[in-house]
Amino acid sequence: MTKVFVHFIWFNFSNTDNTFSSHINTTTSSSSHSPACSVYRPQFTRCITSQLIKWFSNFREFYYIQMEKFARNALLEGVADVRDLTVDRESELFRALNVHYNKANDFQVPERFLEVAEITLREFYIAISVGKDHDPSWKKTIYKVICKLDSDVPPEFKRNYSE
């Protein structure tokens, strides 16, 4: 399969016809769809479908684990102002994500990824700093905020991968 740097891509699928709808989303729900869903629908086999679901679920899980980890570390280090939390190409958080998803640096990470990562980090920091993490479903609010930051599917992701 072609290497792809994932920019919050979540493939929602239909079991009846094995099609995927490209959906830039970081929520765990597959019920919300962005306008991009109706634009791009490649065909995949059942085996590829299963692997992509696992891959993108792992992507989201690793992304959010890193966000929570870095937010908690910022609190432990005494960061008092959420505006002091930034994500740029030189930040440790960016390096952790880029090494995990773009090991060979094959792709230029879009600026929008950095913006959304910074917003996500700040959302985690705020939630943890006010004690919302004591509620079992505390992350759902963050997922809803990040979901609203959907963007168009980059052209390099619109090629037909079923060949």
UniProtKB/TrEMBL annotation:
GO CC terms, sorted: nucleus
Domain of life: Eukaryota
Gene3D superfamilies per the UniProt record, alphabetical: Homeo-prospero domain
Domain Prospero: 1-163
MF GO annotations: DNA-binding transcription factor activity, RNA polymerase II-specific; RNA polymerase II cis-regulatory region sequence-specific DNA binding
Keywords: DNA-binding, Homeobox, Nucleus, Transcription, Transcription regulation
InterPro entries in alphabetical order: Homeo_prospero_dom (IPR023082), Homeo_prospero_dom_sf (IPR037131), Homeodomain-like_sf (IPR009057), Prospero_homeodomain (IPR039350)
GO biological process, one term: cell development
Keyword Cell inner membrane listed: no
Subcellular localization: Nucleus
Main location: nucleus
Protein name according to UniProt: Prospero homeobox protein 1
Organism: Austrofundulus limnaeus
